[in-house]
Structure formats: structure tokens, C-alpha cells
């Protein structure tokens, strides 16, 4: 009730009703505009559009929270601009000026960070260019290629710079890289003529591969082996077929050993992925529990429909490990039980309220609900007692195991029903706090 009153006050502060139209008051440079129509009562219409505003504000809050938590804030700029653009046309009643100011502040902050990052990126890329230009004249081909490969990766990972200088620094970096590889290619062309040196090169690559075959530095060694494979292809020269095949078999054996071990390593990682999957499922189920527990604050028909939707969604979430699975299930089941039991109670009460004459007082309505709940609990306990009596008479024969499990399950169900109805008695009392206190 307090929430409804708050929303109504908010709606009246920022909107009004004229004839059967709901209007948003002018704000900032935006004139007053119609946001909807009164379909039921004026108060219901105002509350509805205040709720729509709250939904929009929740989107803004979520986006700003994600921006605060993210290291890559620039990726959220368009999302912030899109939400800001919607402010002028979104049908709701609330303080859109405050949301506009918050989004503007976030936009300004992002733009400042982007500009600052581009300056940092420029300094980083100039440093990479200077290193590449220094390497372009080296005669240490292997080390130079490795270092240029690392520099190329660093270049790719470095963010963008201002557009007006992007092409210039790209060309300068590529020119240094092209010069190095052009000189290396010329050198290798001369080397191909020296077939007597080819054997030494192949043996060196084999030795380096064998030195890496037992490594557990998976990522770096993978890259190194790929470089070695590329170098093998680049050696050239002419060797006898038998000797070339023997060298290749030895070289390939070292690589196969490493990548077979890498395959086993990846398989072990899949177990970790499964654990992460379980944790994600637990988070999703906890979110469903939280939403189910909040349903009692919504209109009853909406709460029942949403509880059914949540139950369907629960079935689609994967498994959760160990005792946490039982705990989160019990919490979800209890929250849904309260919704359905409260719906049944209200249906029971509606059928017994007089259709004509004065409306019962709050005290009378409270008494009617509490009496109904006590009767329901009484019947549940009677049913539970019968089940417990039948269970006590059941022998321990294995043939009775299935029937025993069924009785125990039904007893637990009635225990949960009684517990839920007791909780609802407390809830009903709180909802009628304005009535005279009763024991």
C-alpha cells in the first residue's frame, strides 16, 4: 500500500489528468505531452504510468551500474545516448530531468575517458613504431621476427587513436614491418643456395621443438611451435628424400607429443567449465527465488500468473550441485506456495463477503481471513495425522518401500502447507495493521 501511495504521489508531482487523458508535465525543453489514457480510474492510470517510469529508471540504473563496473566504459556510450534519446518520448510519469542529468554526466565522463585513452593509445603506438623501426635493420632474423610478432600483437591489442592520424601511424608501423620481412626474405633467398646449411637448420628446429614438447606453458609454447613450423617451411634447400623424411618424422613427433598433451589439458579444463556452469545455474535459480519472494507485493492475479511462469522457467535452468540444490529449491517452493495459498484464501474470502450492503470493516475482513486460515490449518493437520497413522502401521518389508516413500512425501507436503499458512497469518496481520489489534 505504501508503494502504491508513493507511486501515486510521484505521478501527481510530474503529471496530471485532463478529461480522460494522462499528461506529463513540461520539463527541460520538452513541452507537456499526452502519455496515455485513463482506462480504469484516474488513480490507477497515474500509478500505471509511474510504474512505467520506474521501469525506465531501472534500465538507467542498471546501465550506469554496468558502466561503473566496466573497464571498457567507451563501449556503453551508444547505449547511454539511446536511453537519453528515449527520455523525450517515453510514456511514463516521473523525474525525467534527473535521469537526463545522470545520463548526460555519464556521457560526458565516457567521452572524457575515450579522449584520454586515445592519447594514451597514441603514445603506446608511437613506442611500438620506434621499436619496429629499430628492428627493421636487424640481422637477427629469428629474434627480430619474434619481437615483431609480439609488437604486432601489442599493436592489435592497443585501442584506437584519433581518426585524423590513424592512417599515418598505420602506414609508418607497416613500413617498418615490411622492411624487416623484405630484408629477411632476400637473405633467405641467398641462403637457399647453400643446401649444406639446410641440414643444420632442420636439426636446430627439431632440438627446439623437443625442448618444448614437455612444456606446460600451453599458450606461449603453442605459439612458439607454430613459429617453428613456419620456420621449417621457410628453410628450403634440397636434401635427399629419405633424409628429409627422417628429419620431418622426428620434428613432427615432438609437436605431436606437445599437442596431444595440450588436448588432454583442454579435456581437464572442461571439468572446470562444468563447475562454472553449475555456479551460473545457482545464480539463475537464486534470482528466480528472489522474484518469487517479491510476488506477494503484486496484484494477486498477476502474482499467480507470474509464479506459474517462474515455475516453467525453473524447469529450464540446469542442475545445481549438492546441498545448495535442495536449499534453493525449498526457498523457491516456499515462495510459490505462499502465492498460491494466498490466492486460494482470497478466492475463499470473496465468495463469503456480502454482495450487497455495507462493506465489512478492516477488522471484520482480517477476522474472516484469520479464521479461514485456522480452519485450513486444522484440516491439514487432520490429513497429516491420518497419513502419519498409516505410516506407523506400515511394516518394514521391502515391498512397502515405494508406498512408504509416497506417505513420507505427502506428510512433508502437509508440513509445508501448514508452515506456509502460518506465515500467511503473519502477513495478513501486517496488511491490516490499521485495524484493531487482535490476539
From TrEMBL:
The organism's place on the tree of life at top rank: Bacteria
Native source organism of the sequence: Hymenobacter busanensis
Protein name: DUF349 domain-containing protein
InterPro entries: DUF349
Cited Pfam families: DUF349
Amino acid at each position: 500500500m505504501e508503494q502504491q501511495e508513493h507511486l501515486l504521489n510521484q505521478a501527481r508531482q510530474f503529471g496530471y489528468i485532463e478529461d480522460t487523458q494522462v499528461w506529463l508535465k513540461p520539463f527541460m525543453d520538452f513541452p507537456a505531452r499526452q502519455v496515455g489514457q485513463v482506462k480504469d480510474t484516474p488513480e490507477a492510470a497515474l500509478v500505471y504510468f509511474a510504474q512505467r517510469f520506474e521501469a525506465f529508471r531501472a534500465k538507467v540504473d542498471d546501465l550506469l551500474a554496468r558502466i561503473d563496473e566496466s573497464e571498457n566504459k567507451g563501449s556503453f556510450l551508444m547505449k547511454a545516448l539511446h536511453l537519453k534519446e528515449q527520455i523525450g518520448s517515453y510514456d511514463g510519469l516521473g523525474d525525467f530531468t534527473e535521469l537526463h542529468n545522470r545520463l548526460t554526466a555519464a556521457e560526458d565522463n565516457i567521452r572524457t575517458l575515450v579522449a584520454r585513452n586515445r592519447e594514451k593509445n597514441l603514445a603506446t603506438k608511437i613506442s611500438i613504431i620506434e621499436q619496429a623501426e629499430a628492428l627493421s635493420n636487424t640481422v637477427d632474423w629469428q629474434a627480430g621476427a619474434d619481437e615483431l610478432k609480439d609488437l604486432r600483437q601489442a599493436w592489435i591489442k592497443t585501442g584506437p587513436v584519433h581518426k585524423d592520424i590513424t592512417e599515418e601511424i598505420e602506414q609508418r608501423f607497416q613500413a617498418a614491418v615490411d622492411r624487416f620481412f623484405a630484408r629477411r626474405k632476400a637473405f633467405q633467398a641467398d641462403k637457399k643456395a647453400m643446401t649444406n646449411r639446410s641440414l643444420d637448420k632442420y636439426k636446430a628446429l627439431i632440438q627446439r621443438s623437443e625442448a618444448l614438447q614437455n612444456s606446460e606453458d600451453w599458450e606461449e609454447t603453442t605459439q612458439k611451435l607454430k613459429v617453428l613450423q613456419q620456420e621449417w617451411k621457410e628453410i628450403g634447400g634440397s636434401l635427399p628424400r629419405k633424409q628429409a623424411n627422417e628429419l620431418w618424422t622426428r620434428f613432427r613427433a615432438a609437436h605431436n607429443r606437445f599437442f596431444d598433451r595440450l588436448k588432454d589439458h583442454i579435456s581437464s579444463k572442461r571439468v572446470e567449465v562444468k563447475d562454472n556452469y553449475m555456479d551460473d545455474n545457482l545464480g539463475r535459480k537464486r534470482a528466480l527465488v528472489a522474484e518469487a519472494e517479491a510476488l506477494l507485493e503484486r496484484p494477486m492475479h498477476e502474482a499467480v500468473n507470474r509464479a506459474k511462469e517462474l515455475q516453467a522457467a525453473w524447469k529450464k535452468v540446469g542442475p545445481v550441485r549438492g546441498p545448495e540444490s535442495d536449499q534453493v529449491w525449498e526457498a523457491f517452493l516456499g515462495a510459490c506456495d505462499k502465492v498460491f495459498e494466498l490466492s486460494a484464501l482470497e478466492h475463499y474470502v470473496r465468495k463469503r463477503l456480502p454482495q450487497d450492503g455495507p462493506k465489512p470493516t478492516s477488522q471484520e475482513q482480517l477476522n474472516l481471513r484469520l479464521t479461514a486460515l485456522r480452519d485450513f490449518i486444522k484440516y491439514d493437520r487432520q490429513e497429516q495425522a491420518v497419513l502419519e497413522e498409516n505410516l506407523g502401521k506400515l511394516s518394514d518389508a521391502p515391498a512397502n518401500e515405494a508406498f512408504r516413500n509416497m506417505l513420507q512425501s505427502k506428510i512433508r507436503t502437509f508440513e509445508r502447507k501448514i508452515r506456509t499458512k502460518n506465515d500467511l497469518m503473519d502477513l495478513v496481520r501486517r496488511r491490516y495493521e490499521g485495524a484493531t489489534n487482535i490476539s
